[in-house]
Write a structure and sequence with these properties.
single chain; eight-stranded mixed sheet; alpha/beta; 253 residues; two-stranded parallel sheet; Rossmann fold
């Protein structure tokens, strides 16, 4: 059993999904959101929250990190609301109310299903800001290949899972096959969107060099925003009002 459990150690130790009861309503801090569902190409239905206002505005597709679920992550709506965009926040396979179990290929299907959902509502790629946070950055880089979005924003994310394996899985034997790759640095050059990389310069989980390397791999136009004193989970807090100002400035150019 122990050997079987380590056949895919990344899958075992990378994902920390919280489940939600199917009948649980959104929390008060998710005001203005509608619960939505979308079907992936493998038949799994995933759950999300959609903020439809301001009507006709660009839309953010927010791809969250490896823990919690959309009800908890909906606090990010308050942070990004000053951008004046609509927003779709999705849960991956196995998270929240979504079906299935999390795995790399499944998360990529989730991202593509979300883009298809937006497209079915008449929202073109040029009106979509794909925002990947931490693990979500790996999904963002996958789905951004060959597509021209309004912007691709990568916050606190990594070049590849192998590159940060010693930080994420210090207890695993060195050199053991992880079973998941998230090789974002090889995919990012194929993005057709302006790229903004945001990273805390004191990130204890995903070293700042990971963000710098992603920035170097990204095509032009691109911008790097290193947040002084920020760790992995407090980037927007450490940045304060400069956080939204920098993102807005990037979107305006």
């Amino acid at each position: 059993m122990a050997m079987k459990a380590l056949e895919n150690p990344a899958r075992r130790f990378l994902y920390y999904p919280d489940r939600l009861p199917r009948d649980l309503p959104p929390p008060p801090w998710a005001a203005g959101a509608e619960e939505v569902w979308m079907e992936c190409d493998d038949g799994i239905r995933i759950h999300g929250l959609w903020w439809p206002e301001p009507e006709g505005a660009p839309a953010i597709l927010f791809l969250h990190g490896n823990a919690q679920e959309v009800f908890s992550w909906s606090l990010v709506r308050r942070e990004l609301e000053p951008l004046g965009c609509r927003m779709l926040l999705i849960d991956y396979h196995g998270y929240g109310k979504s079906g299935g179990e999390p795995h790399e290929a499944g998360l990529y299907l989730d991202g593509r299903a979300a883009l298809r959902w937006l497209g079915e509502r008449g929202i073109a790629d040029g009106e979509i800001l794909v925002f990947g946070k931490s693990l979500g950055g790996g999904v963002a880089c996958e789905i951004a290949q060959g597509r021209g979005f309004k912007a691709l924003v990568l916050e606190s994310t990594f070049t590849s899972l192998r590159s940060v394996a010693r930080n994420l899985f210090p207890f695993l034997p060195k050199g053991i096959p992880l079973g998941e790759e998230y090789d974002s640095v090889s995919k990012l050059p194929r993005a057709k969107s302006p790229v903004l990389v945001i990273h805390g310069d004191r990130d204890e989980l995903i070293p700042v060099d990971e963000g710098v390397r992603l920035f170097e791999a990204a095509p032009e136009p691109k911008r790097l925003y290193l947040v002084a004193g920020a760790g992995h989970n407090d980037v927007s807090i450490a940045a304060g009002s400069e956080y939204i100002r920098r993102i807005s400035s990037f979107l305006d150019h």
